[in-house]
Amino acid sequence: MTAAVLAGAPAAQALLGEARRRAAALPVRPHLHLIRVGQDPASLSYVRGKDRQAREAGLRSTVHALPEDVALPALLALLDHLSADPEAHGILVQLPLPPHLPPAAVQAATDPRKDVDGFHPLNVGRLWAGQPGLAPCTALGILALLRHYGQPLSGRSAVVVGRSPIVGRPVAGLLLAADATVTVAHLRTPDLGRVTRDADVLIVAAGQPHLITADMVRPGAAVVDVGIHRLTGPGGAPHLTGDVHPGVAQVAGALTPVPGGVGPMTVAQLLLNTVQAAEAQLGRSAA
Ligand SMILES: NC(=O)C1=CN([C@@H]2O[C@H](COP(=O)(O)OP(=O)(O)OC[C@H]3O[C@@H](n4cnc5c(N)ncnc54)[C@H](OP(=O)(O)O)[C@@H]3O)[C@@H](O)[C@H]2O)C=CC1
Ligand SMILES: Nc1nc(=O)c2c([nH]1)NC[C@@H]1CN(c3ccc(C(=O)N[C@@H](CCC(=O)O)C(=O)O)cc3)C=[N+]21
């Protein structure tokens, strides 16, 4: 058997279309503020992509590029200013941050109604309480991708490998809200393969290239590969690969590609979160 490819592009286009439609129905254009600290090449490229796609979807977007050595009070002052500005609807601080800027302090300083990353403790709590709010884009994007391809979650066994605040934890919370039976594995999990073989739906966000091999996957399972690694191929050509070994395609029923799987969903979902935040701030929805 060869796994069906769960391509991100068509599912992301559907989300972008929804973001564009809902943005056009508002009296003002939703405005996303992207904050980047330093010159990390991956962050530069991701923020540029988010900024471009926001404009393409009919949103306003502003990039704030801060120096690597920006002091914490200066960053917090910018977040205070944007939190109070009625013309700013969404705020994202790109990760990773330099070591002198603690992510928890930064995340708590964004108005939770503008927290399009879903990292503020109030939004984290709402997600786990099953209440409406803003949730992290990658986790929402993974659920939207599975829904787009008709992959059922209710009553199924879901295993998440990884427990980071950006992917593993929130995707586990959303899977639970979708009535899956959820297991979260991490570095202290003994015999990872025994746990992952139990999964009808396997979400891999460990940040370890090719961690999941074919023997660790239940035949027919739906496998979502969140990992992104820049490797140098033969001849020195750079290429992207994920946390899932290519051999898994021979066992799984469905598999997301890297690139072109979860990544595009993350960006599309960020724009949808920005529109949702703007709707709520303009009194157009309950969230
Ligand atoms: N496509 C997208 O939109 C996105 C992709 N990514 C990619 O996803 C990957 C994960 O990112 P992120 O969640 O931020 O990573 P982190 O490094 O923050 O977290 C990795 C998690 O995986 C666990 N882990 C690591 N190795 C193993 C192992 N051998 N067995 C079991 N568990 C393991 C860690 O366990 P422990 O907690 O015990 O240390 C940790 O919980 C990266 O490759 C990243 O680039 C990330 C965000 C968005
Ligand atoms: N505050 C914050 N929020 C985030 O959501 C956040 C972050 N910081 N820091 C970094 C991670 C990573 N992330 C990705 C987004 C898009 C792709 C993406 O579009 N990937 C494409 C292309 C990948 C490439 O060319 O690098 C793909 O997989 O096809 C990947 C990864 C969001 N993150």
From TrEMBL:
The keyword Hydrolase applies. InterPro entries: Aminoacid_DH-like_N_sf, NAD(P)-bd_dom_sf, THF_DH/CycHdrlase, THF_DH/CycHdrlase_cat_dom, THF_DH/CycHdrlase_CS, THF_DH/CycHdrlase_NAD-bd_dom. SUPFAM superfamilies: Aminoacid dehydrogenase-like, N-terminal domain, NAD(P)-binding Rossmann-fold domains. NADP(+) binds at residues 162-164, 228. Gene3D superfamilies: Leucine Dehydrogenase, chain A, domain 1, NAD(P)-binding Rossmann-like Domain. PROSITE patterns: THF_DHG_CYH_2. Homodimer. It catalyses: (6R)-5,10-methylene-5,6,7,8-tetrahydrofolate + NADP(+) = (6R)-5,10-methenyltetrahydrofolate + NADPH; (6R)-5,10-methenyltetrahydrofolate + H2O = (6R)-10-formyltetrahydrofolate + H(+). Pfam families: THF_DHG_CYH (PF00763), THF_DHG_CYH_C (PF02882). Pathway: One-carbon metabolism; tetrahydrofolate interconversion. This is Bifunctional protein FolD. Belongs to the tetrahydrofolate dehydrogenase/cyclohydrolase family. Residues 136-281 form the Tetrahydrofolate dehydrogenase/cyclohydrolase NAD(P)-binding domain. Residues 7-117 form the Tetrahydrofolate dehydrogenase/cyclohydrolase catalytic domain. It comes from Deinococcus hohokamensis. Its EC number is 1.5.1.5, 3.5.4.9. It comes from the Bacteria. Keywords: Amino-acid biosynthesis, Histidine biosynthesis, Hydrolase, Methionine biosynthesis, Multifunctional enzyme, NADP, One-carbon metabolism, Oxidoreductase, Purine biosynthesis. Catalyzes the oxidation of 5,10-methylenetetrahydrofolate to 5,10-methenyltetrahydrofolate and then the hydrolysis of 5,10-methenyltetrahydrofolate to 10-formyltetrahydrofolate.
